UniProtKB/TrEMBL annotation:
Keywords: ATP-binding, DNA replication, DNA-binding, Helicase, Hydrolase, Isomerase, Nucleotide-binding. Signal peptide: none annotated. It catalyses: ATP + H2O = ADP + phosphate + H(+). It is an enzyme of class 5 (isomerase). Its EC number is 5.6.2.3. InterPro entries: DNA_heli_DnaB-like_N_sf, DNA_helicase_DnaB-like_C, DNA_helicase_DnaB-like_N, DNA_helicase_N/primase_C, P-loop_NTPase. The keyword Nucleus does not apply. It comes from the Bacteria. Belongs to the helicase family. DnaB subfamily. This is DNA 5'-3' helicase.
Amino acid sequence: MSADTLGIPEQQLEQAPEAVSVSAEAAVLGACLMATPGYDPIPGAARILADPGDWYRPQHEAIWRAILALHARSKPTGVPMVEAELRRAGDLARAGGVAQLSLIATQACVAAEVEYYAEIVHGYARLRRYQAALARGMQTARHSDPDGVSDAIAAHQAELEHLAADQTGEEGLFGKFADGLQDHLDSLETTVQAAAVTGMTDLDAVLKMRPGNIVVLAGRPAMGKSAATLGIALANADSGRPTLVHSLEMGRSEVTNRVLASRARVALHHLTEGGPAVNEDDWARIAQRLPDLEAMPLWMDYTSRVTPGLVRTRIKSIMRQTGQAPLVVIDYVQLMYTDRRDPRQSTYDRVSEVSRELKILAEETGSVIICCAQLNRGSEHRDGKVPQTSDLRDSGQLEQDASAIILLHREDAYTPESPRAGEIDLILSKNRNGPTSKITAAHQFYYSRLRDMTTQNDPTW
């Protein structure tokens, strides 16, 4: 709604935008000071003005806090009660005293218009945040070195996108349960398609990856995390779904060799050694698979310093090209950095912040994000060496944010003569979209891949 529609002269808007914001703030606060049991405008205003920083004048923010405190205790919010609350909090002088409260009460808008004025207040607050973000961006640009340009741009872009994705006052998030019930029942008649696939039939049967899901795939070193996640990325891309891989641990050459080994069934050590080790049969197999590999909607990022802001930038780029949210694989999450450089931040806090930001990013974009993660040594001191969710290293936040957690375990990693040599257990210890279970697959590390047990000997794959 425009300022003119609310009775704010356009001339005043052009001369002093701050004055318009202040007038709208007084209109909202005045209506709240005049609230009655019959018509209470405070919840509607609070829905829009959820951020304390929405208020331009500090005294208005102090009054608003007093009103909310009284309202939360089911107390009246008239001038005498707000005065007493401000006095109790030591904010009466900051709010301008009783005279200021009385003046604001005279500037009240009609109760039915409170939400319109609140939108004006919130809109100007967003404009101030935008201006501040641009100023910070300019300051960062002036102090950045050439090596840090990409990080600076990614962080600035993430901040701007966060501002653009303002969700305050969104309709449809609050209401009676029955309001959307019939639409939901109608949607159940259509089978929900998974947002991503793993390429392993048994795992796909129980792991239903939905948009916005975070999947943590964890294991001790050399358990096959990279082989598993790279295989998932390849299978998903092979299905025509866009896929993004952030490889923080391996470089381009190593990842490319693993992709060729997995898809062309060429021994990984042949590719690693190169030269005569790559025989004619190997070249023939590679040539046969090359067209499929080149056609895959698969993006790779070998950037060593990956932050949630950079992941967001890559996702947005792929969405612009394909119109779809990609499956994102991060190998591995404990190597990621936060968007803000804080040398005093502990590893635990860093990983926790990264986990939270990735969860928000997945929900905002509709991407499925698969995070490789390291486990601590807890399982190695346990009978059978079987890992548990509590073994996740550096952060319990990963466990909380994940929609699913897959723990990798191989008996032959500890007992080479085990009768289960060549087998790997994928322990689905958490699964919000289905049952928890243990799936056994075959590992073929000479091809850098995992296979379904039923198809491990199929020569056509």
